[in-house]
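Exam revision sheet. Question 4 asks you to relate a sequence to its structure. Input first:
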Amino acid sequence: MRVEPAAALVGDLAVPGDKSISHRALLLGALGDGESEVRGFGASEDTLATAAAVTTLGAPAEVDGELVRIRGAGLHGLRAPDEPIDCGNAGTLMRLLAGILAGQEGRFVLAGDDSLSRRPQERVAEPLRRLGARIETTDGHAPVTIEGAPLAPAKVQPEAASAQVKSAVLLAGLQASDGPTIVVERHPTRDHTERMLATAGARVTSSPRQASVWPAEGLRPLDLDVPGDFSSAAPFVAAATLLAGSSLRIHGVGLNPTRTGFLAVLERMGARIAVYNRRTQGGVPVSDLEIAYA
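Answer key, structure tokens:
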């Protein structure tokens, strides 16, 4: 690869769809009552592994570029396959799916590649057990075996701040017998799951240090435009603030408050960044950005 010095960044661009939201759109679509349509899907090896996983579980996901349609199996309708579910290298998939499958009927095995198999899984298994989940890891790692079981609500404080662990517990709490499941956090983490659950019709409350979900009868299918990934936009934002003569517009960027500290730092340093055309997509704040060399 050869990189030439740039004179300026001028014009308009859009960035790929947010992968964290794309994962969650597939998983919630699989639990929905009916067909979900997701546009702006952030395709990658990890998100395509999620599409394959929900298809294996009985909720077919058809991926056509940035458009995905998922035929939901319903909140309690996923089926156990004969073979392990291949999560590839997708840690988000393995951890969130553990929460979903904890309350389903059947026996499920979650496997991954060598890299994923080295990552710790007890940090999600232990909180799920507090809801009554029957989940076993392999020396703290994958493969992870889940025997679907009746779940009861619980109040959980994970040892480490993790949006993946929080999401897994909330997704399990949707299937609990009665009352709220509460996750208390030591430090705030991304709240994509809470926002998208609310869009799908679940009863959810959220604050910077606590999230709660109540059992649901079912979930509405999603009709979602995935916001542009802020991490993908950040290098262009930085470059436009540094290169004289730049005038750059980035369209449809997800600006979840848990992810935008970088913008705040640049603005404190004197960057000229305008945020406009604010709207909400799937419960997530989205805006266009205009960056000009200061």
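Marking note for examiners. The chain has a mean pLDDT of 95.
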